[in-house]
Amino acid sequence: MTESADHVPVTVDHPFVSAVKPLVDAMGAELLGPEQAQPDDVVLAWEGQDVIAVRLPQLSDSLDHILAAMERRHGMPLADLDRKAKQSVVRALEARGAFSVRHGVETVAGALGVSRFTVYNYLNREHTAKGQ
């Protein structure tokens, strides 16, 4: 069982819920009972019956979630990575649209422990390399 923000238990015993939960967690989304769904939530059905609703995160929350997942993947704070690894993180974040979020560059720079200028340099370096 998991609990939503309203503390209503959501059963994860259903095989469909168990199957989608890793994806929902990776997105930083929230599982809700289908009866709790609001208009912007996505209700998922199994064999014609509503089983679960997914509340998608706000874009700014998604960036924080992605950064936290990257730290877990690297096993250390992103600020402790070497320059090459930080450049790789910036490329991955750009591919996921991190810099289309308001204050994305500033948020990423803070997580990497570098200046905004450095993040822009990493981005420009990648674009220059693709153009050659």
Characterization of this structure:
The chain has 132 residues and is of the alpha+beta class. The protein folds into 2 domains: 2-55, no CATH class; 59-131. Helices cover 51% and strands 14% of the residues. The chain contains 5 helices and 5 strands. The chain has a 3-stranded antiparallel β-sheet, with helices on one face. It has a two-stranded antiparallel sheet with strand order 1-2. α4 (104-112) packs across α5 (116-131). The longest helix is centred in the middle third of the chain and has 16 residues, at 59-74. The termini are far apart.
Average pLDDT figure: 86
Give the topology string: H per helix, E per strand.
Answer: EEHEEEHHHH
Runs in which pLDDT lies below 50 for 5 or more consecutive residues are 1-9
Q: End-to-end span in angstroms? A: 52 Å
- Tally of strands: 5
Biggest sheet: strands, sense, closure? 3 strands, antiparallel
Q: What is the overall number of helices?
A: 5
Q: How many structural domains are formed by the residues?
A: 2
The secondary structure category is alpha+beta
Task: Indicate the proportion of strand residues.
Answer: 5-15%
Shape: elongated
Strand order of the largest sheet: 3-5-4
Helix content: 40-55%
Rounded to the nearest angstrom, the radius of gyration is 18 Å
Key features of this structure:
132 residues; alpha+beta; 3-stranded antiparallel sheet; two-stranded antiparallel ribbon; 5 strands; elongated; disordered N terminus
